[in-house]
């Protein structure tokens, strides 16, 4: 859900995307393979599943012609336990995602795919059906806008004494 929330901000729609992702996962489970027996199969499977969920979210955005997502996520969506994150990391993650969700949809999608999910620009270009140069440009602009939003939030928090 957290992966899909970075792309789809309506809770009900995110649930639909996750459901679609799991349908794709179960239909394609026979195509999941790993080469070396010593590899950590769980990590490989989680990575494979994450890629399916990202593709399902991108497919949904494409169907909507990358329309901006609006609306708030319910607070319980952030309460999903993550055994690898402490309280401070969870708070920082929530703040970062809040700032990312304010980016224009084309910038947000490229930023998520490149920075958070680790895709290369040529992969993003194929996924979003845009030129590689547009992917690079959108990433650059997203970073600038995100830095401005974070600076604004820090200035507000500093001024209010938080």
Question: What does this entry look like structurally?
Answer:
It is a single chain. With 162 residues, this protein is mostly helical. The chain has two domains: 1-79, Orthogonal Bundle (Rna Polymerase Sigma Factor, Chain: A); 86-162, Orthogonal Bundle (Arc Repressor Mutant, subunit A), CATH 1.10.10. It is 66% helix and 0% strand. It has seven helices and no strands. The chain has helices at 2-5, 11-27, 41-63, 87-100, 105-116, 121-128, 132-160. The longest helix is centred in the last third of the chain and has 29 residues, at 132-160. It is globular and about 55 Å long.
Summarize the structure.
With 162 residues, the chain is mostly helical. It has helices at residues 2-5, 11-27, 41-63, 87-100, 105-116, 121-128, 132-160. The chain starts with a helix and ends with a helix.
């Amino acid at each position: 859900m957290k992966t899909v929330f970075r792309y789809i901000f309506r809770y009900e729609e995110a649930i639909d995307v996750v459901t679609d992702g799991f349908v794709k996962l179960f239909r394609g489970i026979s195509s999941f393979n790993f080469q070396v027996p010593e590899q950590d199969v769980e990590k490989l499977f989680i990575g494979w599943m994450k890629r399916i969920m990202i593709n399902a979210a991108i497919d949904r955005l494409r169907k909507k012609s990358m329309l901006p997502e609006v609306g708030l996520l319910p607070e319980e969506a952030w309460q999903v336990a993550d055994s690898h994150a402490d309280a401070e990391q969870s708070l920082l993650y929530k703040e970062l995602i809040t700032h990312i969700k304010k980016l224009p949809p084309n910038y947000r999608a490229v930023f998520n795919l490149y920075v958070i999910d680790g895709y290369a620009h040529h992969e993003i270009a194929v996924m979003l059906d845009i030129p590689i140069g547009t992917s690079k440009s959108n990433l650059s602009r997203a970073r600038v806008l995100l830095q401005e939003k974070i600076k604004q939030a820090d200035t507000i928090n500093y001024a209010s004494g938080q």
